[in-house]
Amino acid sequence: QLQLVESGGGLVQPGGSLRLSCAASGFTLDRYAIGWFRQAPGKEREGVSCISIRGATTKYADFVKGRYTISRDNAKGTVYLQMNSLKPEDTAVYYCAKARRPLVFDSCTPEAYEYWGQGTQVTVSS
Which residue(s) pair with 101 in the sheet? Predict the structure, then answer.
């Protein structure tokens, strides 16, 4: 079955780094853009970063630009999110999802993506 499984979250101090992984199975990864999203307590799910089918194009939310890097390895079936210079406001559950439309790279918004994973908790605190 189609699955997206997030991992790599944890507790980190402000200024620290984490690398999240999204392992995909049950579908052709190289036909879909993939996105990372996050949801903090009491807030709506928001787009963090999205990457095109082959990784040639990336999109970042303003609040993470310059600190996060998205990448993908289609052969490994994995999409990554490298998070540097983490801030307390980055604390959230982070999810990955596949684009609804194959072979295109739409806006990096939750509405354009589907098949969410279970999420991985990122906590940035002193």
Answer: none
75 vs 71: CA distance, rounded Å: 12
The amino acid that residue 103 corresponds to is L
For 3, the token pair is 């699955």
Output the CA angle 15-21-25, nearest 5 degrees.
170
DSSP state of 27: S
Q: Is 102 helix (H, G, I), strand (E, B) or coil?
A: coil
Contact present, 6 and 96 (Cβ < 8 Å): yes
What number of residues does the chain have? 126
Phi, psi of 29 (to 5 degrees): -60, -40
At residue 29, the 3 state secondary structure works out as helix
Structure tokens at 64: 């993470």
pLDDT tens profile 60-113: 999 998 999 999 999 999 999 999 999 999 999 999 999 999 999 989 999 999
Residue 35 has what DSSP assignment? E
